[in-house]
Amino acid sequence: MAVRRVMPIIQSEAAQESREFYGLLGFEEVMNLGWIMTLASPSSPTAQVSVMTVDKTAPVTPDMSIEVDDVEAAYALMRDSGAEIVHPLRDEEWGVRRFFVRDPNGRVVNVVSHL
């Protein structure tokens, strides 16, 4: 299993202000679903930050997202390790397969692969 990118997720109602603030650092909007917006560096597209009001289909808002090339393998590893699965493995309508797991610090991690 390979990690493709790691992205912090900021829970906020200030999407426009965040877009402007991170825009000053060179980030540009690459996705906006209304409840989540992702900003990326044009020169290094995997350098990203997301701003989320609330997760559309999960009971909690994750703190970070880790994109992997094999989400099923990641899910099996986390489940078998005894880690707390916060949101089950599932396909989402916006083209990803994901699950949430709680890390040892109490942070919720969205582990995801694109379909």
Question: How would you describe what is shown here?
Answer:
The protein is α+β, with helices and mostly antiparallel strands. The chain has a single domain, classed as 2,3-Dihydroxybiphenyl 1,2-Dioxygenase, domain 1. 18% of the residues lie in helices and 44% in strands. The chain contains 2 helices and 8 strands. It has helices at residues 15-24, 71-81; strands at 3-11, 28-32, 36-40, 48-52, 64-68, 85-92, 96-102, 108-114. Strands 2-3-4-1-5-8-7-6 form an 8-stranded mixed β-sheet, covered by helices on one side. Strand 6 (85-92) and strand 7 form a beta hairpin. It is globular, with a radius of gyration of 14 Å. The mean pLDDT is 96.
N to C succession of SSEs: EHEEEEHEEE
CATH superfamily: 2,3-Dihydroxybiphenyl 1,2-Dioxygenase, domain 1
Count every beta strand, where a strand is a DSSP E run of 2 or more residues: 8
Radius of gyration: 14 Å
Helix content: 10-25%
**Amount of beta strand:** 35-45%
* Major sheet summary line: 8 strands, mixed
**Would you tell me the overall average pLDDT?**
96
CATH topology: 2,3-Dihydroxybiphenyl 1,2-Dioxygenase, domain 1
Q: Would you state the CATH class? A: Alpha Beta
Q: Terminal Cα separation, in Å?
A: 16 Å
Strand order of the largest sheet: 2-3-4-1-5-8-7-6
Unreliable runs, pLDDT <50, ≥5 residues? none
Global outline: globular
Number of domains: 1
Report the total helices.
Answer: 2
Structural class, by secondary structure, is: alpha+beta
Quickly give the CATH architecture: Roll
Pfam families: Glyoxalase
Organism: Streptomyces hirsutus
InterPro entries: Glyas_Bleomycin-R_OHBP_Dase, Glyas_Fos-R_dOase_dom, VOC_core
Protein name: VOC family protein
